[in-house]
Design goal:
Layout: E1 19-23, E2 26-29, H1 37-44, E3 55-61, E4 66-71
Parallel strand pairs: 1-4
Antiparallel strand pairs: 1-2, 3-4
Length: about 80
């Protein structure tokens, strides 16, 4: 007589990855995870005025975080 086979209980755990922002090579921690990316842009504009017109790309999986990158708009003055 064989014993019944049992399967181990499997638990699936999910968690949100923290966000990080990158501008001009500088990593900027997420000031508030409840803020939208546009709200973060508005907040960071005081320290980095060029961010107001920068393009944002992401999120990109950076391993332990989701990375959003602000890229300066390139144009000529004059």
């Amino acid at each position: 007589m064989s014993s019944p086979t049992t399967t181990p209980n499997m638990t699936l755990k999910t968690s949100l990855l923290p966000r990080e922002f990158v501008y001009n090579g500088a990593k900027i921690p997420d000031p508030n995870p409840a803020m939208t990316v546009e709200q973060v842009r508005d907040l960071l504009t005081a320290a980095y005025p060029e961010i107001s017109t920068a393009a944002v790309s992401g999120p990109e999986d950076a391993g332990k975080s989701l990375r959003y990158t602000f890229t300066r708009a390139i144009g000529s003055k004059g």
